[in-house]
Amino acid sequence: MNLATGRVIVARVMLASMAMVTCMQATPVHAQRVDPDVRALRAIIEKPETEIDLARAKLTIDRIIDPAVDIEGTLAKLDAMAATVKALAGPRAKSSEITRVLRSYLYDAGPWNNQQPFRYDLEGDPLGHSISGKLLATYLRTRKGNCVSMPTLFVLLAQKLGLEATFAASPGHVFVKYRDETGRWYNLETTSGGYPRKDESYQRDTPMTPQALKNGIYLRPLSRKESVAAVMIGVLLDHYTNTGRPERVIAIADVALEHYPSDINAMLRKGYAYYLLLRDFRKKYPRPSDAPIEGRLLFQALELNNRLWYEKAEALGWREPDAGADARYQEIVKAAKPN
């Protein structure tokens, strides 16, 4: 899905619609708290930063998408995996040595993984669009993932091993940020073997503006709240977009943006949700002038909100991807060697 194609250019603005724009920019808090999904998300993201358990957060959000997700069973599996890595690394291993063992444990074939390493799903989901493929339980079962599930497993295991690791983003992509015992940060590309990649290679393959880098929307380590918002809630936003629930997308994007105001993906998904509402309106009223006055005001408010969220993203430095973006993305996941 290309969220950029959901942008509507607005030529006229009526003052009467501005009040409606204001009231539509966010779902009322009391209404959000009644929604079980929003309530579950707030229970996760409103905790103090140090109390957020990213593994439980990921599985709780995944379970909203797939009720068959076994949270406790999967947590036990993660604990067992971390224990195996710890044993392989040895009791006196440094942070960098544990990271090396973790990388090998996940991506090199050996007795520790029954000769079945984790791989990017190049055949079934080369562009990483599958919602199922972004779920942690699916990745653990199939050992085929994408740029959401793959860095997620690495980060969750790294944190259980006491490593300083988190998520970072480039346009349309998620990877791992890791800091070793010397205090040096590394980018680890889990979609192609967990090898380090330099910032410059991401800037080459997924171009980003200087403005975006200055505003910190790309290439920097995310906090736990930001990780929940951008990486985990982002999958839920994709799910509800794909299943035609734009109102729910807006309500959930509001939760993400409340705790991560520069969440580009939430802005784009919210803008696209307003596009979907506009599309539904046009099916009912091919000519907006045929709608009753309340409907015309609603139409203009939807147009303005659609434009607003794309403009907010652009103001932070986001730009629509060019024609070669998909090809460059596939090169990222095929490059299974360090730069």
UniProtKB/TrEMBL annotation:
Protein SirB1 N-terminal domain residues: 75-192
Key word Signal present: yes
Membrane-spanning intervals of the chain: none
Signal peptide coordinates: 1-31
Keywords: Signal
SUPFAM superfamilies listed in its UniProt record: Cysteine proteinases
Keyword Signal: yes
InterPro entries: Papain-like_cys_pep_sf, SirB1_N
Similarity annotation: Belongs to the UPF0162 family.
Protein name: Regulator of sirC expression with transglutaminase-like and TPR domain
Species of provenance: Variovorax soli
